[in-house]
Every structure is written in structure tokens, then in C-alpha cells.
Write a structure and sequence with these properties.
- The chain has helices spanning about 1-15, 20-40, 145-150, and strands at about 50-55, 60-65, 70, 80-90, 90-95, 105, 110-115, 120-125, 125-135, 135-145, 165-180, 190-200, 205-210, 220-225, 240-245, 250-255.
- By secondary structure, the chain is mainly β.
- A hairpin with a 2-residue loop joins strand 12 and strand 13.
Length: about 290
Amino acid sequence: MRRTGLILLMLFAARIAWPQTPEDTYKVNIARWRVAHEQLLKMDDGWLTLAGLYWLREGANRLGTASDDAVVVPSAAASGELGVLTVRNGQVTVAITPGSHVLVNGALVSTATLEPEDDTLTIGSVSMTIISRDDQLGVRVRDTQSAARLHFPGERWFPVDPAYRVVATFVPYSQPKPIDVPNVLGGSYAMQSPGYVTFTLGDQAIRLDAILEQPNARQLFYLFTDATSGHATYPAGRFLYSDLPRRRRVVLDFNRAFNPPCAFTPYATCPLPPPGDRLSIPIDAGEQALPTP
């Protein structure tokens, strides 16, 4: 009996010491990436903290906790009238109600000019920034105590499948060309495409537009839907990044395909896949749809 136990212990130790295969290492790396991705969602400035999106009109826009205010602040963080946001010729200024404890970039001031994406109003757990979309100015409200963040069930993923890590051929344009990327607001973003990629999954030849989010971007961006969209995956499609091409080759790892912000909040302004990037085959890899409440 003692000998049998010793043999079992030796076998167990040998199993622990057994070197990982490249596939094991790959799956561990994907698992770590997915954990890190979820942590980004949960951060104080992650998508789960979005608590409102309000479009401003020309002139005065009241800021407060009343349901009929132009910009409504969650009542758990404040009460009453907090100030007035005024839009004049594409510029936004704020006049803070005395005693409301609203801070502008961390300071107590009575008035300020607010630059989109740069300046921040805060009160308690709530922060607000001006955004500009399709020549519209709005206020994005975040709350670190939002219900979406506090009760997030976690992301869901397909099992890691190395078959969905493919080497694609990058076909460059002579010059990056503008591409109209539709968005959930009914408009579109003018983005630059340096080329497209082609690859094969199963017996299907696939083409995807490659996009530069910024002129000096260090990665290529892809938006796509597939036959799983609206069933196993988010209806509006998923996002994917790759490194820049080397010798006209890029690696597309669909195990890292993930949901756009609009899958987690109604207050995001997501881009949507261009018409040519709506695939007819299923991509059973990457992030799945969130569970139905």
C-alpha cells in the first residue's frame, strides 16, 4: 500500500513537471488576455460606468437631478440643480450653481469653458465630459457606482480554438483610402483604410477591410458580423485588432474578437461593420453575447 502511494505521488509530480505544449501555452495566453480585457471594462473609466448620454441644444441646457433636466445626474450622487451648460457656436461653457460641489477638473470654480474629451465635471461618484459626434455636442455621464458595473455578470467566451488563429495576406492600397464606417447614431465615421486582408477559414475565402483608427495607429482594426451574430454573439458585430503587416502578412486571432461597447451600455456611440465585412460563415470564436437578464 505504501509502495502504491509512492508510485501515485511520483506520477502526480511528473504530471506537474511535464512541459506545456505550444497549444497549452497559447490557450493560457488567451485566457490571461480575456481576464485583462474584462478588467478594462470594470475600471473607473470603463464602459460599465456609463450612466447617461445627453445631446445638447444651442443655448442653455440645465444640469441637475430632475427628470426634465437637459442633462440628468444620478440622484445618488447629488440633488437639485447643479448648473447650466451653454452651447454657442460649437463651444460649451458651464456655470456652476453655488454650493452644488461640482468640480471642474478637480477644482471649485464658478464658470469654465469645456473642451470635448478633455475637461471633466465631477460630483461624488459621477463624472461628465463633453463629446462631439457627427457635429453634435453631448454630455457623457459616468458613475463608478452604476448598477451595470456593480452587477456585471462577466463576459462569456467560446472555448479557445487555435484553428481560428489565421495568417492573412495584407493587400495594400497605393494610398490609404477613406472608408465610411456606419455608427449606431445613424451616421458614419470617415476612417482611413490602408488596405484589406484575405484569408481562408474552412473552405471559405474571406476578405476584411483593415482600418486605421488614427493616422499613426500601431494596430489594424476590423469590424465584422458573421453567421453567429444575433444568436450566439452580439447582433451588431464584433471588433478585432491585429499587429501591422510584416511582409504583407498579418495574424488574425478570432479567439480575441470582442464585443463593442454598445453590447454593455446603451450610452456608447459604436461604429458598425461596413457592408463588405458582413460574413456569411459562423465564427465560433471570441466573445459571445451577454446572458439575457
